[in-house]
UniProtKB/TrEMBL annotation:
Homodimer. Its EC number is 1.8.1.9. This is Thioredoxin reductase. The gene is trxB_2. It comes from Sporomusa sphaeroides DSM 2875. Belongs to the class-II pyridine nucleotide-disulfide oxidoreductase family.
Length: 309
């Protein structure tokens, strides 16, 4: 039976940074990712706040270089979805769809995924007008109307990015003012292609195969309005950016959770010895690439110390 020094679950910035530090420390390391590397950062079109990033850096290009660094230090890889874990013994057991994995320590870096808008018809129209990824799907709505749901940093930044494609981008926000950083708000308010629907939520999305209309509700007046796709377009885009849901369901009842997130101390230790958490899955105030990478580095170094003792 193959027993690794450390297994990292998740290939986002936290997992890749953990792999880099673990591999460099000559620990026998396996990084398991169910899909492709990058997590949420790969859907970011432009990265300008990561220290040392190149000009015109995208999430994809940044992650590609992180992955290369990790591979350089001998980290083994497995593409699998972990479905159950057993952390009760000195050797931790991870059960995936393709196999079973064993390690003396584990770093959880499973991240979080987009929160649904929460309206009728949303699920049926995902990929047919409804999206949560501007860089993935923005070009499908060239010269069309686009609606962005949310009012935080991500929503406003992605709305500005979508103005490259849509003829008009409307931010739909349930409050009467944005929550985004002032510098981001200023850019958006000056952008002639961005409009706003304040105190508004989407209650229903309609369409037969493609998104054709949506019903919006003003939360102050209670008035509902149906917005139809322009006849010449036949459809329009609705992008949801209202936060994330932690990918932690397989850890319920196994380790301590707070609202689905994993609490740790500053050493990234969970309540179970030998099990660490890093990145967006943690209980934390700031979720950025730089903080995720820092978490991953700390988790790997603390895993090394754990193994030494």
């Amino acid at each position: 039976m193959q027993i690794y020094d450390v297994i990292i679950i998740g290939g986002g910035p936290a997992g890749l940074a953990a792999g880099l530090y673990a591999g460099r420390a000559r620990m026998k390391t396996l990084l398991i990712e169910k899909d492709k590397d990058g997590g949420q950062i790969v859907i970011t079109s432009e990265v300008e706040n990561y220290p040392g990033c190149m000009e015109e850096e995208s999430g994809v290009s940044l992650v590609a270089r992180m992955t290369h660094q990790t591979e350089k230090f001998g980290v083994e890889r497995a593409q699998d979805a972990i479905t159950a874990v057993d952390f009760s013994g000195d050797v931790k057991v991870l059960k995936g769809k393709k196999g079973e994995y064993h390690a003396r320590s584990v770093i959880i870096a499973t991240g979080a995924f987009p929160r649904p808008i929460g309206c009728e018809g949303e699920k049926e129209l995902i990929g047919k007008g409804v999206s949560y990824c501007a860089t993935c799907d923005g070009n499908f709505f060239e010269d069309m109307d686009i609606y962005v749901v949310g009012g935080g940093d991500t929503a406003v930044e992605e709305a500005m990015y979508l103005t490259k494609f849509g003829r008009k981008v409307t931010i739909v926000h349930r409050r009467d003012q944005l929550r985004a950083a002032k510098s981001i708000q200023e850019k958006a308010l000056k952008n002639p292609k961005i409009n706003f629907l304040w105190d508004t939520v989407i209650t229903k999305l309609k369409g037969d195969g493609l998104l054709e209309s949506m019903v919006i509700k003003n939360l102050k007046t209670g008035e509902e309005t149906e917005i139809h796709a322009p006849e010449e377009d036949g459809t329009f885009g609705v992008f949801g950016f209202i936060g994330f849901l932690p990918q932690s369901s397989i850890f319920e009842g196994v380790i301590n959770l707070e609202d689905g997130y994993i609490p740790t101390n500053e050493r990234m230790e969970t309540n179970i010895p030998g099990v660490f958490a890093a990145g967006d899955i943690r209980v934390k105030d700031i979720r950025q690439v730089v903080t995720a990478a820092a978490d991953g580095a700390i988790a790997a170094m603390m895993a090394e110390k754990y193994l030494e003792h």
